[in-house]
Amino acid sequence: MPEETLETAASESQIEEAAIADELIEETTSHAEVIETVISSLDASDTAMVSRGEGGNIWKFQYGTVEVFVQMTGEAEEDIFTVWASVLALPVNDEPKLFRKLLEMNWNSTFEASFGICDNKIAISAQRTVTDLSPEEISRAITLVAGIADENNELLQAEFGQ
């Protein structure tokens, strides 16, 4: 019995140490560092740029045939993390058909991202607060938006562009 108690205590201690190590990594790795790591893994053309200002940081990089933007207003819980990419300029041919197609895509193929209109362009975006934002969520949002935009911009342009 005493051996089992020591083994249990040792494994509990190791679990606590691992949890403390995970917390330290999370504390020392900023969201901005995670964003830059994800962008560097996706940016094959080495086009990434960042603008740092009072309103937060905005990154821009080329992914395939689209420019992708990532904005984080800060590191506090109430700050916002947003990823977006424009896929088609408005006006287009047959806007009702395009809008129906985009709504259907929002329902069944964009996951946490969605199509919308920004600055007279169709864009795909994902947005959430920084509260409990994990590195995996950052990576997924950037990858989803970049991939969906790159997959669809030429198709949408061919079908609906003027």
Automatic annotation (TrEMBL):
One matching Pfam family: YbjN
Source organism: Lusitaniella coriacea LEGE 07157
Protein name: YbjN domain-containing protein
